[in-house]
Amino acid sequence: MKIEGVWLPIVTPFLHDAIDFRSYKNIIDHYVKTGISGIIPLGTTGESPAVSDYEFEGFIDKTIEYVDDRLPIFVGLGGNCTAHVVKSLATLEKYDIAGILSVSPYYNRPDQRGIYEHFLKIAEATRLNIIVYNIPYRTGRNIENDTIYKLADLDTIIGIKDSCGDIKQSMELLLNPPPKFSILTGEDLLYYSTLCLGGSGGILASAHLYTDNFIDIFKSIRQNDHGKALGIWKKLSKIIPLLFAEPNPAPIKYCLKKLGLIQSAETRLPLMDITQELENKLDAAII
């Protein structure tokens, strides 16, 4: 399976501290029509740490029901206990999904051997496709390119969401990609640069807004119309920093509520609503 284009790590709407399935169906129906390549529920943007084990299966059930085979689904599933992640895979195996997005182990900071063995055990335990998520400023440990090349040799590890924070490392990977391996940026501000260097696309929280613009950039670069892509990108690049000025996904949820796509901008602790100052900036720039 080739992963490319714009993938949406979709928000989890809440209302009165419960998952708001009415809003969730509404945004799925909205984004399916935009031309995105797929959706990823229960990633960081989906506030997965704040979704209980009890809610998890019901949320996947509803995701599959609402998507209704219109898009591929990769579910966020990772952790810093390899055995627990492998056990959780058994729950997902019964669902008709394309794969998982799995973050590198966090907090306990394994070395490169431990990172490789972690993903090897996951790959051996499932038929599902796996996108590895490298985000060292959250996990405390980078997945080095040598380890990525080794992981890419495993049949079910088909790509990476690259948020390594090191442009040199990203460029080296993009210019020397593993065969049949998708390199998608998770750094929204590097989306255009990633595509220009041959990347497969992006898993982009900011694509909740101006979704068609993100898709147009992808199509334009694939058609070698870099001038058009750059013109679109210059506008988007001014908006993206505002969406991450305070912890994700609170600014995005604020915008989605203002646009009428969800009923509430509610997040779960420890995340908070955005400040009035940021509300004013978003109102002026976006809404």
Briefly note the structural class of the backbone. Answer: alpha/beta
How far apart the termini lie comes to: 37 Å
Quaternary assembly: single chain
Q: How many distinct folded domains?
A: 1
Shape: globular
Q: Please count the beta strands (DSSP E, at least 2 residues each).
A: 10
Overall mean pLDDT: 96
Largest beta sheet: strand ordering: 4-1-10-9-8-7-6-5
| Secondary-structure arrangement, i.e. CATH architecture | Alpha-Beta Barrel
Low-confidence stretches: none
**Most strands sheet:** 8 strands, parallel
Textual characterization of the structure:
With 287 residues, the chain is an alpha/beta fold. The protein has one domain: TIM Barrel. It has 12 helices and 10 strands. Helix 1 packs parallel to helix 2, helix 3 packs parallel to helix 4 and helix 4 packs parallel to helix 6. It starts with a strand and ends with a helix. The model has no long low-confidence stretch (mean pLDDT 96).
